[in-house]
Amino acid sequence: MPHYRVPEAAPPSLRQQPQPRLATGTGPVIGRALQILDTFTAQHPQLSLSELARKADLPVSTVHRMLGELLAWGALERDEHGRYRVGLRLWEVGSLAPRTQGLRERALPYLEDLAALTRENVQLAVREESEIVFVERIGSSSAVPTLTRVGGRLAITATGVGLVLLAHAPAHVQDAALARPIQRHTPFTLTDSSQLRRVLAQVRTCGYAVSDRQLSDDTLSVAAPVTTAAGEVAAAVSLVVRHGSMPVGAMADLVRTSSRAISRVLHTPVS
Questions:
Q1: What pLDDT score does 3 carry?
Q2: CA distances from 138 to 122, 144, 216 (A)
Q3: Spatial distance between the Cα atoms of 251 and 179, rounded to a whole number of angstroms
Q4: How would residue 271 be classed by pLDDT, with cut points 50, 70 and 90?
C-alpha cells in the first residue's frame, strides 16, 4: 500500500528545498492557472492582482484574464478590498484526496482521545516525497504554540513525525533528504547527515522519534509510526509539548499506544 500524501503549499522558510515550477509546455492554459494557484502560501493567503502576476511570473493581463475563470469556478474568491484568496470549491476538491480521507477519519477518535487526556498538541502527518504534510492537528488553548497547520508542510528532519517517516522511507528518499543542506531552525537543529542517520536507525529500533527543540526553542515532540496491514508506515502521530513539561518516556508510551490503535483500525476493512 503506497504512502498517503496530500498536495499543499508549504511555508517557504520551512521547506527543505525549493518547489519546482509547474511545467506549462503541453498545457499552457492549465499550467498558467496552476502557477497562479501555486503563489498562495500560509504567509501570503491573500494577494492582489499585481502580486499574483509577479509571483507567478506572468503578465498582468494574462493573470487578470485567468482570474475571471478561476473566480467563476470557485477556485478563488475576492474579498472586499479586491484581494484574491483560495476558494471553498478548491478546498472541497482537495478534501476528496483518497489517501488522506480515510486515514484522517479513522484516526480522528484516537487523536481526540490523546488530546483530551494530555491537553497538548496532537498531530497526524504523512510523507510527500522528502517532505511531511500534516493531515490533522488538535491542540488546546493552553498547549504550547506550534508552527503546524492542517495541510501545511514542515522540515522532515527537524520534526518528530518527519523523523519517523524518514526512518521508514526508502533508501533513495533518505539519501536525497540527507544529501541536501539542512536548514538550522534553532541551535538544537540536527544538520549533520551522519548524526541524522544514527538517529533514524535509533527510531527504527525503539519505535518512536524525539525532536527536542529542533524546530522551535520551546517545543518537544515525540512521534510514532502508523502502519498498514502490509506493515508499511503510512503516517506518523505525534504529541508536542512545551520543553521540560513532560518526560519523554511518558510521551512515548502515550503516542505509541495511540499509533498502535490507529494502525489496528487501518488493518480492519471498512464494512
A1: 47
A2: 5, 12, 18
A3: 31
A4: low
For 58-78, the pLDDT digits (tens) are: 999 989 989 988 998 988 999
**Which cell goes with 77?**
474568491
What residues contact residue 142 under an 8 Å CB cut-off, 6+ apart?
119
88 Cβ contact partners less than 8 Å away, ≥ 6 residues apart: 74, 77
Closest among 53, 51, 58 to 24, alpha carbons compared? 58
At which residue does the C-alpha cell 492549465 appear? 30
pTM of the model: 0.70
Three-state secondary-structure class, residue 125: strand
Q: Please choose, from the candidates 187, 179, 119, 189, the residue with its C-alpha nearest in 3D space to the C-alpha of residue 154.
A: 189
Distance (Å, rounded) from C-alpha 167 to C-alpha 43? 30
Find residue 225's DSSP bridge partners. 236
The amino acid sitting at 141 is S
Q: Quick one: pLDDT band at residue 20, thresholds 50, 70, 90?
A: very low
Distance of alpha carbon 110 from alpha carbon 48, whole angstroms: 41
Contact 8, 152 (CB under 8 A): yes
Which three three-digit cell numbers place residue 159? 520534526
| Amino acid at position 179, single letter | A
Q: Would you say 246 and 222 are in contact if contact means Cβ atoms under 8 Å apart?
A: no
From the list 212, 215, 171, 175, the residue with the least C-alpha distance to 194 is 175
